[in-house]
Amino acid sequence: MAGAIIHIIEFALNISAMVLLIVFAVMKENPKQIVSSALYGAFHIFFTIFSLLYTTVLLYNSKNIINLFEIGSKYLVFAGIAIPINLVVGGSLGWIFLGIFILLKSFGNNNKYDLHRVNKNTYAFFINLALLIAFAVMLSLSWSQFNIGLLMWLGLAFLAAPIGLVFHRLTFHYLSPGNK
Questions:
Q1: Rounded CA separation 130/167 (Å)
Q2: What was the pLDDT predicted at 112?
Q3: Nearest to 141, CA basis, from 74, 85, 72
Q4: Listed residue (9, 39, 13) closest to 25, CA to CA
């Protein structure tokens, strides 16, 4: 029940954050920012909905199906992070970065979910994703806009993904197969 309450609060915060992002993007009259904000917010809302369903549904067979949708929505969250950065980079270089990002993300997730274990290759893929995004951000900013704090924040944000993989392996009471 506590997980459901937290996800409901998260859902409300996601909607309010998405509205603020879109309003600020509209005020700047930049179509790239409007599209980026809408995609980013929508993908986070999808993820929150499936996480909420996963924590509240009690039937084990339904949990398996919802878990697949939750995993798919994690792809969307990563796409929601990558697409705005690649839109800002622009041109063919942005598409190349997006292709490399999707390729690395696919290899990392296939390695994790198909083999049902997390190994060193999975961590390497996520670390490479973090470096790729940091490199794309550095290319999109001019030297006057670049600061080390932004780079450190991006690095920490993307290095948190492997930590999430470790916690995904832990068995929690409400997720154990014995609770059907």
A1: 19
A2: 52
A3: 85
A4: 39
The span from the CA of 168 to the CA of 164, in Å, is 6
pLDDT digits (tens, 9 = 90+) for 164-178: 655 655 555 454 454
Distances 157 to 10, 70, 86, 93 between C-alpha atoms, Å? 18, 20, 17, 23
Contact 119, 111 (CB under 8 A): yes
The model's pTM is: 0.60
91: left (phi over 0), alpha (psi -120 to 50) or beta: left
Distance of alpha carbon 91 from the chain centroid:
23
Q: Which 3 state secondary structure label does DSSP give 147? A: coil
Phi/psi at 131 (5° precision): -65, -40
- How many other CB atoms are found less than 10 A from the CB of residue 24? 13
What averages of pLDDT result for each successive group of 10 residues across the chain (180 residues)? 79 88 86 82 87 81 80 76 72 75 65 52 64 66 61 65 58 49
